Amino acid sequence: MGLGRLPPVLVLALVLAVGAQPQDQLPRESHNLNWNKFSGFWYILAIASDARGFLPGRDTRKLGAAVVRVHGVGQLRVVLAFPRSQGCQSHTVVLRKDGKKAVFRNPLKGVEGFRVLTTDYSNAVVDLRLGRAGRHSQALLLFSRQNGTTFPSMRRFMDICEVRELTAGATVLPKDASCAHTILP
Ligand SMILES: *[C@@H]1O[C@H](CO)[C@@H](O)[C@H](O)[C@H]1NC(C)=O
């Protein structure tokens, strides 16, 4: 993949550098996250995904939303509303904490990972891993309590997209809250 002419040592250095990035450069706040504070309604202002067809066509895009609730020990109940090509769709899933890791999952429902990469409780970047029938995808979601982005939150989101090589699939959603508000608590 374009590395054929590089000396092997340089290739190894590149692989190590890329491989080390997510751990070294991504924040790890989710380890001591206050889930009660994180709970509640969030707009989804931007999304980046490596899955084709995750987003509907340009003219039917709208803000998404999530409602996160602590649901017993080590469990989260997450409702997601998202504009898809079939229209606004909402899904509810109960996720369980993966042992000591700061990741919540429910593989039977197709959620392999839900992880908060960074948050100040007003904005957040969430890493969502989906997998079903052997097909895997990852998405980064920019969560916000407000319906508009701020420069620092967008900057943080784009930085993480770059580390994950998802910049090409990054989209800021138009400020139409009609789908998001279908799951207002
Ligand atoms: C965004 O939120 C503000 C109040 O927080 C509201 O006045 C405005 O109408 C909202 N905009 C949209 C497009 O929903």
TrEMBL record:
UniProt KW keywords: Signal
Residues in the signal sequence: 1-22
Keyword Signal: yes
Cell membrane listed as a keyword: no
InterPro entries: Calycin (IPR012674), Lipocalin (IPR002345), Lipocalin_CS (IPR022272), Lipocln_cytosolic_FA-bd_dom (IPR000566)
Domain Lipocalin/cytosolic fatty-acid binding: 39-164
Source superkingdom: Eukaryota
Family: Belongs to the calycin superfamily. Lipocalin family.
Protein name (record): Lipocalin 10
Taxonomic classification: Eukaryota, Metazoa, Chordata, Craniata, Vertebrata
